[in-house]
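BMP family ABC transporter substrate-binding protein: structure tokens wanted.
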Amino acid sequence: MRRITRIATVGIASAALALSATACGKTSTEGKSEKKGPSAAIAYDIGGRGDQSFNDAAYAGLQKAEKDLGVKGKEAEPSEGESDADKVQRLTELARAGNNPVIGVGFAYAPAIKKVAEKYPDTTFGIIDDTSVTGKNIANLVFNEEEGSYLAGVAAAKATKTNTVGYIGGVEVPLIKKFEAGFVQGVKDTNPKAKVLTQYLTQPPNFDGFAKPDLGKAAAQGQLDKGADVIYHAAGLAGTGAIEAAAKAGKWAIGVDSDQYNQAGLAEYKDKILTSVTKDVSDSVYNLIKSVKAGKPQTGEVRYGLATDGVGLAESNPEFTKMTDVTAAVKKAKLDIVSGKIKVKTTP
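Answer:
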């Protein structure tokens, strides 16, 4: 097995080094005495743990399961430029070791899970953000990202002073276009005169747009130069660069997946993180582990939406909560989405 460098929860500069590590999946328990009892594993997406966003949210769910359920958690990091074969090897090793469930963090794990789940029918496999691969022992943990993004659009449209806001997507794939669709709709429904600058960092099969903060920083700077004073990113680790650029310019950033205001690695910029579109990735991981331990494993589509607080808009920044006109508009929009009065688009 090739070895990896563990990615700690660090600041932007250190986290940007994450993909320099090569791995097929060293676990966090390697080198420690093995405990008896159930174990669960997560295999991280591009950027790895320490991205202050998507992967860290999954890790929080594993941590909670360790604490509340007495489950031993194992983690496996991605490698730079890895293939589907690398993912198959990683998931196979985790399943063979007896971990149950085994969770792939991100849609990129779909081909690998399809292959490995068939070989380990008694193991439950979870995949986050994908419904393309199905099976009797596969749980598809998915979210209504467009709904949370609509609320971000409402907030951005109310907070902007220049009538220009920005959206930065990591990689131009259908999932990330859902974020764009909801955000743009929320902006336009709230302020038809507002302009939305949209940019994607990379095109598949290049997934650096989820991994390299310098790309997010450059894109945000370009939008700032064009007058944007609120920038929303859906770019994982790369998006931390966008937050840095906005904050240093004294403008607002809107985070994604985790409540990025509370991420330790972004503490330097937190005052300018207006809010974040949250996805309850943490509870999706925890709930799947809990279901397996209870002997009633989740399978099929498990969807998290605004109505159940599976997605939402964070209110940690006190400056955001002081903006009563903004928060009132967000609250009304949430009620209208949940009631069905507002239908949020899933494509731009």
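The chain is about 40% helix and 20% strand. The chain has a mean pLDDT of 90.

Cheers.
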